[in-house]
Amino acid sequence: MSELELDPSLLETLRTLQQHAVEFVLVGDVAEAIYNNGGFVSGVAIVPGAYGRNVERLNTALQAMDAELGIAGTPASTPVDYRRCDLRELAPCSFLTRHVDVDLDFEPLGTDGYRDLFDEAKHIELAPAVSPLVAAREDLERIGRSSAAPAPYAQPPAALPPEPDDGVYSPADDIRASRSAHSNFG
Questions:
Q1: Is a pLDDT exceeding 80 seen at residue 8?
Q2: Are 44 and 85 in contact (CB under 8 A)?
Q3: Which residues touch 183 (CB under 8 Å, ≥6 apart)?
Q4: 30, 44 in Cβ contact below 8 A?
Q5: Distance separating alpha carbons of residues 146 and 10, to the nearest angstrom
Q6: Nearest to residue 67, comparing CAs of 77, 54, 78, 80?
Q7: Domain spanning 8-147 has what CATH number?
Q8: CA–CA distance, 39 with 37 (Å, rounded to integer)
Q9: pLDDT the model gives residue 3
Q10: What is the pTM of this model?
Q11: In the chain, what are the domain boundaries?
Q12: Which residues contact 37 (CB under 8 A, 6 or more apart)?
């Protein structure tokens, strides 16, 4: 069992998903905290299997946690009855539950979804009856790299000054020099 002490609300969320036999890989803050033996955890992020029966089980688990679409304690501005929707069409999305927020993404950037993450993931026991499949550290890094905003880069100037050919200066090459050579001012 992991020595990491997680908030009971997080554990209850994971336990509910497992009790409903939802197949998922744990990613995000909780997975990072497991590998780093601690850290700030704001909610549960999962990559569920996208096949029909699993999505139905996920929907049932969300209903059992009184979930509603929203983020960071704020319900969605447009009410959506997710129980009548295909969660695969709503994702990526976040749900407010009576425990903690659940972030749901069937195919995070940089991955091909559950099957891609499944191979390297491992079950880690966090508490009795709570042993989620946790994404491999390398996969978490891959998701993080793909999700990060691109680094800004320098823009070249609109027009570059002409480069000297061989270091030999010719007044004809200089715009100012050529104009003054043809000037009417003597």
A1: yes
A2: no
A3: none
A4: yes
A5: 26
A6: 80
A7: 3.10.450
A8: 7
A9: 64
A10: 0.74
A11: 8-147
A12: 3, 4
Tokens of 6: 């997680």
Residues 37, 5 contacting (CB under 8 angstroms): no
SS (H, E, C) the chain: CCCCCCCHHHHHHHHHHHHCCCCEEEEHHHHHHHHHCCCCCCCEEEEECCCHHHHHHHHHHHHHCCCEEEECCEECCCCCCHHHCCHHHHCCEEEECCCCCEEECCCCCCCCCHHHHHCCCEECCCECCECCEECCHHHHHHHHHHHCCCCCCCCCCCCCCCCCCCCCCCHHHCHHHHHHHCCCCC
Crossing angle of helices 28-36/137-147, nearest 10°? 130
**Closest Cα partner for 108 from 155, 46, 43?**
46
Q: What is the pLDDT of residues 103-116, one digit of tens each?
A: 999 999 999 999 99
Amino acid at 133: L
